[in-house]
């Protein structure tokens, strides 16, 4: 087999393998977004969209799909025929959403729901509660493992909180069910949250790292204005040049000329 034929054969094999991988990925994303988003801890909006970044993090949790990147999604969209997914402004949804779970008012709620928060935000959560942000709802789960999976997408070691449903309902919280084990809301008051001791958490969090301490400014400096120059008076150069002692005006050759002139004047007299 010639070298040219060898390269052509390898290119053909790679093309077939890539095409099969794209089809497999398309079917997988259609299942994730169009059938069981709750199985992956994803809460879709009213139009069936979810942020691409969140979907990729959820997909990477499944063994064998950690290679998927945004470029693979773009390849699916550019492939001939109808794509199994649609994207818009950083969001993604399945083209066929007929089998997706419908969001409905939650009924027969469990006594406790789980949610994770970032370590740095735990103290604020215990004091002020947890509020949804960025146009996305809070996602809680009746399954502790699922709540931890969702939390680890934002923090490597999140803090697990328990939300007492009865107290939350008394405070006016409205829960929406988004699948088998997922529940959504906009706000959780601090009175319904339970978690590890705050003192133990701060001890576990520990003091700021050396890098963070180095980044903290030790002295407040006045911001420099554009085009301005502030000399450092502590440096020898900024103190100005040293004044040299002036030389005497009576230079030697000038003295000689004056002496000759005096002698001439004396002769004329």
UniProtKB/TrEMBL annotation:
InterPro entries: Ptrans_KptA/Tpt1 (IPR002745), RNA_2'-PTrans_C (IPR042081), RNA_2'-PTrans_N (IPR042080). Residues 203-255 are annotated as: Disordered. GO terms for molecular function: transferase activity. Residues 213-225 have a biased composition (Basic and acidic residues). Residues 238-247 have a biased composition (Basic residues). Transmembrane segments: none annotated. This is RNA 2'-phosphotransferase. The lineage of its organism: Bacteria, Pseudomonadati, Thermodesulfobacteriota, Desulfobacteria, Desulfobacterales.
